[in-house]
Design a protein that fits this description.
It is a single chain. With about 80 residues, the protein is α+β, with helices and mostly antiparallel strands. It is built from two helices and four strands. A four-stranded antiparallel β-sheet has the order 1-2-3-4, with helices on one face. β1 and β2 form a beta hairpin. The radius of gyration is 15 Å and the shape is elongated. The N and C termini lie far apart (about 40 Å).
Length: about 80
Amino acid sequence: MRLVANIPHPKLKISIMAYMDKWIIELEGGAYKQTYKISQEAIPSIEDVKRLVSDSLLENSMERFNGMHKDFAQAFELIKK
């Protein structure tokens, strides 16, 4: 896997990688990670891949991170009992 780009963001680590004819967009927030895979055939340009990382995608991803944290915290509470 080859790192192609990092996109600066105040709350997330955003990485774009190339691997086996796919673009991989990784969003990392704290202990959680979301990954999107896109065919390089469908989107051949790295600039177009960067445009996919829109404000809307990031806002929805942040909501998903919050949900992931809530789910994990609930699971963790169950094993502490």
